[in-house]
Write a structure and sequence with these properties.
Chain A: It comes from Gallus gallus. The structure holds two protein chains of two kinds. By secondary structure, chain A is mainly alpha-helical. Chain A has helices at about 1-10, 25-40, 50, 55-65, 75-85, 90-105, 120-140, 155-185, 190-210, 225-250, 255-280, 295-305, 305-315, 325-335, 335-355, 365-375; strands at about 115, 120. Chain A contains 16 helices and two strands. The longest helix of chain A is centred in the middle third of the chain and has 28 residues, at about 155-185. In chain B, a hairpin with a 2-residue loop joins strand 3 (about 215) and strand 4 (about 220). The chains are: A mainly alpha, B mainly alpha.
Chain lengths: ~375, ~400
């Protein structure tokens, strides 16, 4: 059972938003986001709706209904898009739009004539959509099951095969749309950047998958390896999109680099923030399940040493292989894992803010800074 | 072929159908493949700029089920040497080579031989394609060993490299036509590599979608590593192809080849649906065939012609050539799915029918005069492409009904 649970975590739970966990504490977060949306003058929750209205996807939606009652993860992903309004934020797209606005109009050539709405070029808006399309495509592709590992409790084989088919097709459809829109930007450097981002994302998800294999409880990785892998799965797309947005407006290489750094460090902070949620929330009820490869656990292992950590896991497992998350949580909290994770989160937040300094002061820049504050707040 | 042998073979095939509706294969069905073959050639002959001439007589299949004694000959398609529409002064003949040199097809279209000297296209393109697979592997360099292994799985040098071959030959033709240059540009070679990579990425995903377990004579990626990793591998190959495409540095080429990716997916969707109206069905099938198979070849030919020659008329010709070769290729592939056996194909035979897919031969069979044969065909379509959600009990009932039907068709 807990194997299935780990698998779920490895998939990122099929949720929207920057990572598999929940968003930062509700009130200030939604405020930050709605203000940001006003600034970019565009209802981001309608992004990529154009392709959603296509025949193919309505075909898919009809077919996915057949999955109701089965245990295929595509159903969760689809549900997440429709019902999960709290998480249904197109974060990446929003950040790309904000940073485009914050960078201002192109200073490069006077002949740079593209239409600009609310301070953002249409090509940059298109790029924000593309980023969301890619992110969504991989959320869908994460929700595929291995046919060979299915047990009878997972339901009929044909349902799972059908669900896989739908997941592959819809993910491919979204990716194909992203590629077509990329080609329309008529900028080969941007295509190069985003293609390499997709490659990074694939590698990152690959690591996620490997980590949630049944045989090993937790990887023997240090925090630096963790950071590299999380960069691939959670940061690369946003960082390179921010850089690409600068390239579209022909901003300087320094500005592109700063945009990249903002995207990278902000998303790292976000991931750390969501990993820390089970450990910083005050709740008397049963502890939330968490991945044994989350940041606090990885840091905890580094401090304690692998053998002691494995021992603690076994103690928490108790009899019958049921993980007592509360006990394990206490063990981690007792060590230095949580505090150093918080420090790491704030460190990345500061780096993101430092990168923002090179942008001229504006509403958009303030909104980007607010986002960083929201993901580094732990009270 | 004796009618008793026909029926026995048909029954064997019928037993392999799990979950798809009643097979259309009545006794006449097998002879329809012959008609289908002839019709396929006439469809491919609709190219406005080239006329196909064919010779075909296929060798006997070594599969024990069927024995023929026709001598072995390769079939050939040649471009006429002097045609008012065809501007290429000297075009190497492109023999039409099927997957395997021998098939169990009992077709005997009358032959025409062109006075072009036959040259093996794979030999012609060999120099350019010598390091094709090594170059592809260079694009797929990634630190994770298993991911790299998965991605390189189909680039082991055992594939036919059919698409790259067409691409480089078209590149040469365009270069010679425009500037009498006998070299292939680096960017044109990249297009060949990209075409092969896009094709392979789509194969990997198709195998997950169809839950296939063998291809090219070995296990599929999803069979060995599981579906989740297989999908990731397909995505990675696609992203590497996209990266290589960007590096060519030509936005027109990027647009042309990105169209392929979109067409591949749309073709897959077209395959999901089916049309009730008989007249629409064939058009639907051809459109699906174009999107899934021909678009890649057509657009890669167009891309290299753009790189080699500035004349838009040449681009259009290259596109039409690629499109028609692609459609013909797929039509024959669909026929082979019925007539060949798994050893020759490298993948399980009768796969299309098993998936409930109505391909060329089936569509032609539906045009039969006998109402019963047509009824069978209707059944195939109406039960939809997802007809696999049927229970075991109904499968047994079906088989019983099939026996009865075939018994009465004697």
């Amino acid at each position: 059972m807990w194997g299935a649970l780990l698998r779920r975590w490895g998939r990122g739970g099929g949720r929207r938003g920057l990572s598999g966990g929940g968003p930062p504490s509700a009130a200030p977060w939604s405020q930050v986001v709605s203000e940001a949306e006003k600034i970019v003058g565009y209802p981001t929750s309608f992004m990529s709706l154009r392709c959603l209205l296509s025949d193919e996807l309505s075909n898919i939606a009809m077919q996915v209904r057949k999955l109701v009652g089965t245990k295929h993860p595509l159903l969760d992903t689809a549900r997440g898009f429709v019902y999960d309004s709290r998480n249904n934020l197109q974060m990446r797209g929003l950040v790309v739009l904000l940073i485009s606005k914050a960078a201002g109009p192109s200073t490069a050539e006077l002949s740079f004539q593209h239409n600009m709405v609310s301070g953002i070029y249409s090509s940059q808006r298109s790029l924000a959509e593309i980023t969301e399309l890619i992110h969504t495509a991989f959320l869908v592709h994460r929700g595929i099951v291995n046919i060979g590992e299915l047990k009878s409790c997972d339901g009929p084989l044909k349902d799972m095969q059908f669900g896989n088919k739908m997941a592959v097709l819809s993910g491919d459809f979204l990716l194909a749309n992203a590629c077509t829109s990329l080609a329309q930007l008529q900028n080969t450097k941007v295509v190069e950047l985003i293609s390499s981002a997709i490659g990074d994302l694939v590698q990152g998800i690959y690591y996620e998958n490997s980590r949630s294999s049944e045989n090993c409880l937790t990887d023997d990785i240090g925090i630096s390896t963790w950071k590299k892998q999380v960069f691939l799965s959670h940061s690369a797309l946003l960082a390179k999109s921010c850089q690409a947005a600068m390239e579209l407006a022909k901003h300087s290489a320094e500005m592109q680099d700063m945009a990249f750094r903002y995207g990278k460090h902000m998303s790292m902070s976000h991931k750390l923030h969501s990993d820390l949620q089970p450990f910083v929330k005050e709740s008397s009820s049963d502890a939330m399940a968490f991945s044994l490869n989350c940041a606090p656990a990885v840091l905890h292992q580094e401090f304690l040493g692998r053998d002691a950590w494995i021992k603690q896991i076994r103690e928490a497992q108790g009899k019958g292989n049921l993980m007592d998350y509360k006990k394990l949580q206490e063990a981690i909290k007792a060590g230095k894992g949580v505090t150093s994770a918080i420090d790491l989160c704030r460190c990345h937040g500061n780096r993101a803010l430092a990168a923002l300094e090179s942008f001229p002061p504006s509403e958009a820049r303030a909104a980007l800074a607010n986002i960083v504050h929201a993901v580094t707040r732990f009270s | 072929m004796a009618s008793g042998e026909n029926r026995a073979y048909v029954l064997q095939l019928a037993r392999r159908f799990t979950g798809s509706s009643r097979p259309f294969l009545c006794e006449k069905g097998l002879s329809v493949t012959q008609g289908a073959f002839e019709s396929c050639t006439s469809v491919s002959a609709r190219a406005s700029t080239a006329r196909w001439k064919r010779t075909d007589r296929f060798a006997g299949c070594s599969c024990k089920r069927r024995k023929f004694s026709a001598p072995e000959q390769k079939s050939m398609c040649h471009f006429p040497q002097r045609s008012s529409v065809w501007p290429f002064p000297k075009l190497c003949s492109i023999p039409w080579r099927f997957y395997h040199t021998s098939t169990a097809l009992m077709c005997s279209c009358s032959k025409t031989v062109s006075d072009e000297k036959y040259q093996d296209p794979f030999q012609l393109g060999r120099k350019d394609l010598k390091n094709l697979y090594e170059d592809i592997k260079k694009e797929l360099l990634v630190s994770t060993a298993e991911l790299r292994e998965m991605c390189e799985y189909y680039f082991d040098g055992k594939g036919k490299a059919f698409r790259p071959m067409i691409v480089v030959l078209m590149a040469r033709a365009c270069n010679i036509h425009h500037s009498n240059s006998r070299e292939v540009q680096a960017s044109q070679r990249s297009v060949a590599i990209i075409a092969e990579m896009i094709h392979t990425a789509s194969l990997v995903h198709d195998d997950v979608i169809d839950d296939a377990n063998s291809r090219r004579g070995k296990m599929t990626v999803n069979q060995i590593w599981g579906e989740r990793k297989a999908v990731l591998a397909g995505d990675f190959i696609l992203s590497a192809a996209s990266l290589a495409l960007a590096r060519i540095g030509n936005t027109t080429i990027i647009s042309v080849l990105t169209q392929v990716i979109e067409d591949l997916v749309r073709g897959e969707f077209l395959q999901l649906g089916s049309k009730e109206n008989e007249n629409e069905r064939f058009a639907h099938y051809l459109e699906k065939t174009f999107k899934k198979t021909a678009s890649l070849i057509a657009n890669s030919c167009k891309a290299v012609s753009i790189l080699g020659c500035p004349d838009p008329k040449v681009h259009e010709i290259a596109y039409q050539y690629g499109k028609n070769v692609g459609i013909a290729f797929q039509l024959i592939d669909d026929v082979l799915d019925f007539t060949s056996c798994a050893d020759h194909l490298g993948k399980p035979a009768a796969a299309d029918l098993k998936l409930g897919l109505a391909t060329g031969p089936v569509l032609f069979a539906c045009r039969q005069k006998e109402p019963r044969g047509r009824l069978e065909c209707m059944h195939v379509f109406v039960s939809s492409s997802f007809g696999h959600l049927q229970g075991h009990a109904s499968q047994e009932r079906q088989e019983r009904e099939e026996y009865q039907l075939l018994g009465s068709a004697a």
